[in-house]
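quick one
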Amino acid sequence: MRIAMVSEHASPLAALGDADAGGQNVHVAALAAGLVRRGHEVTVYTRRDGRTLPRRVGAPDGYEVVHVPAGPAKRMDKDDLLPHMTSFSRFLVNDWQDRRPDVVHSHFWMSGLASVLAARHSHIPVVHTYHALGTVKRRHQGARDTSPPDRIAVERLIGSDADVVLATCDDEVEELLVMGVRRQKITVVPCGVDTKLFAVDGPVRGRTAPHRIVSVGRLVPRKGFADLVGALPLVPDAELVIVGGPRDLRSDPEARRLRACAEAVGVADRVHLAGQVARSNMPALLRSADVVACVPWYEPFGIVPLEAMACGVPVVASAVGGLTDTVVHGVTGVLVPPRDRRSLGRALRTLLADPYRGLTYGIAGKDRVDARYTWEAIAARTELVYQRARASEELAVAP
Ligand code: UDP
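structure w/ uridine-5'-diphosphate:
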């Protein structure tokens, strides 16, 4: 198949850990590579956010990246990109006239909008993955939600126009049904993990305390790092390494907030903010942990728990979103209520006090990843979804 992937703000070639670069970038890159390995031709369309970026470039994994001129050629907050989706969509229409894709897979709501508009008159089937939902964000962030006000309405429109909606976890299915997306349109295909990079064996980063907790993610409040810092007084002899954010944290407001929080609860000497860590160094860092903690307030999917499990490390996670599918309570880790420092502290302390339990969770986590979450398996399942989308589009236009 000739597959067009549209990912307006999340380039598969971007550095990870910054405010707008995380799981979606990983997902698009790994899925594109997995589909290429299955013999498909994949082009990823992403916004041109730098003057020096070439119009078209071949990625080392065999897919092509097209940098779409839509808005200023500089990095912008994703909340400011909506006005540029008309030019993005127009570019797709033109590009697809010459090279018609068999299927379009859009990622995130603005890509979905550009894609359904571009594909509307050409009968190209559209598969959409939301990655995150405006309704959920609004519920959790209330007045602090900086998404454009039209987001939720546009997400409904995509749900009605797209041929197939791919949910990444069961929790998202419930949310989509409440939004009014038809059940027959929804299929669950989770994110995967690169099991060649994230593996049990390999180098391990050194540590400075008897126990180490590692937490990874974009340095934004909803990732729950402050709850971890707040729980640390309940977890003796443990250091906490927080990974993510810009490389230089000096002027980062969230880093400043976390440091102040650590000072306030008396654990400043046990909290290390590592800033952005290159993907290639992430496995050694995860392997150095006794436990990887992922405690967001909400999480559409969350790739980090899978990366930890692939490295054979137990996970303590908040029982939200995709984490309730990936982490099996009492088998591969422990699930705790979100934003509950006392439960979190207790779970971490109990697990660290019982290394045998940690070991068995780690082994079970690795097994679970191998059985369900390799990108090979996810690419194969996605391919079936594309075939279904093509068949339903053919039926729709049949005379
Ligand atoms: N990541 C990274 N370096 C960093 C911070 C994060 O490589 O400094 C990676 C992390 O290993 C994971 C992704 O970024 O692959 C974050 O994905 P996740 O789904 O957990 O969170 P999101 O950022 O999408 O909310």
